[in-house]
Design brief:
Blueprint (H helix, E strand, L loop, with lengths): L1 E3 H6 L1 H7 L5 E5 L2 E6 L4 H10 L9 H10 L2
Amino acid sequence: MSITATELKQNLAKYLILSATEDVYITKNGKVIAKLTSPFQERIDDARSLFGILPSDITVDEAREERLSRI
């Protein structure tokens, strides 16, 4: 979503809430000057990329031991 700096000033609370679920780009004079995003978005993306990577019949401890044995 893209909004103007003026719109952000007038409705800051709304866009703070919205930024938890999507990036909000702030523009001034037609140019993007900032991006409002969740501080946890990177963690969420990382977790989503790992979903389904482990077989369903392996425990977390077994996966950890296997990972550590490769070092």
